[in-house]
Specification:
alpha+beta; 19% strand
Length: 94
């Protein structure tokens, strides 16, 4: 069966995909406002059930996103459709 490392890798890949989408989209704006750095940090809370990602914009602003167990640590989760990632995309693409 899948373990925490498997789900963690899926979540990291999804976050990286969204960062690429955001950065690629911002290239086409007349005046790109905010673009995220490709490198970011993460850690676990709640005994490994909550995955916390901290992204940084080129202006130094921090974006902290918490993914609770039901949002990432299950075979039934499609992380690419996660509402928090979509919200991030909308925030930086508008």
């Amino acid at each position: 069966m899948f373990n925490q490392e498997h789900y963690k890798k899926q979540l990291i890949a999804a976050i990286n995909s969204y960062i690429r989408l955001i950065n690629n989209n911002c290239q086409y704006h007349e005046h790109p406002i905010r673009v995220l750095h490709d490198e970011w940090v993460s850690y676990f809370e709640d005994n490994g059930d909550t995955f916390v990602a901290i992204l940084t914009t080129v202006k130094g602003e921090k974006e902290k996103i918490k993914f609770h167990k039901a949002e990432w640590k299950s075979i039934n989760v499609n992380i690419l459709t996660n509402g928090k990632l979509k919200k991030l995309l909308n925030k930086f693409s508008s």
